[in-house]
Amino acid sequence: MPRWNITPETLNMLEDVFRMQPFPPILMREKLAKSLDVTPRQVQIWFQNRRQRARHCKIKPHQAQLVDADGALLYPGTPLSSPWCARALARAGAARRE
Length: 98
Description:
Structural class: mainly alpha
Order of helices and strands: HHHH
Strand content: under 5%
Shape: globular
């Protein structure tokens, strides 16, 4: 199976679907795969990996305070300093400020 380079537009679409349904049924995965020109298995693996990232980067209310006004981590040595977690923390901090 060739490596799948996900464009920002594709990522946004997958993230939207994930927010609505983190466990999409096979028919939805097949439809996504066809529209993205990849295999259903690649879509399935993306959702598995995304669910794992969501568990790993679970944002708690007090953790949103770990980011400054620009969204940068105040404590870069924390386990939440991976790029995926940093983006999740930044979104959580922005949501709190609104």
